Amino acid sequence: MSAARGQYRPAALLAAAINLVCLLLLLLTMGTVIWALLLRAWYETSYLAAALVAIAGAVVVTLGLAQQAIAARDRATWREMAIWQIRSATRKLAANGICGADELTELLGTEHTPYYEHLIETLIDDMGREDRSLALDDPA
Amino acid sequence: MKLNPEREMGETWLRFAAHWIAACYGHFLRVLLPLLVDYSRGSPWQPFPRWWVMVSFAAGSTLVAAVINANLPITPRELIKSVALGLAISSTVVILKLV
What we know:
The complex is a heterodimer of chains A (140) and B (99). Chain A is 82% helix and 0% strand. With 140 residues, chain A is mainly alpha-helical. Chain A has one domain (10-137). In chain B, helix 2 crosses helix 3 (76-95). Chain B starts with 12 loop residues before the first helix and ends with a helix. Classes of the chains: A mainly alpha (140), B mainly alpha (99). The interface between A and B is medium-sized, with 29 and 29 residues.
């Protein structure tokens, strides 16, 4: 989320670094297993099938990781949009004198309070559903 | 139905599959590392178990690991935990001399 606004907090940077180290460890593990299976296949040909399965597994995991990363990025974008819409609506209501900003903050809460979080989650779910149904309806 | 984010993260088949594959890598790391160590010393002939013993042992330990971790998101950080759990369960079985 902070990345979308162009601000990097130390905690987010640390999390990204840990994720990167874990990714390298994961690739190292997969590489080691595949190498050992190929080594084994050199002496016992039937292990070639196991090596091929391991390579397929590595490809599936990598694709899954990429797909999840894209989904997480979409979610972060939708979250930004939902927060922006709520702020905009609050401002508009306050400007028209319908409802004070403090009153709305009291009603909705702020970020990290349960009601606000549920509201954001619901809006994100709606956006995700809309996105999927648009993709399904797309004739192209 | 909404999940309580404080307690549940939600299980999906995609998560189960990803963590199962990761646990398989952990399990086979335990099986194959001795082979790599021996190979570097110049004796690559390790006696290997019959394939059905290996496959059923692998299925048992990795499925337990995958069921436990099936609610974690698919990120490198969580997948490495599945690798570690697969390695740990299979090591425990070997230490207890069950296989």
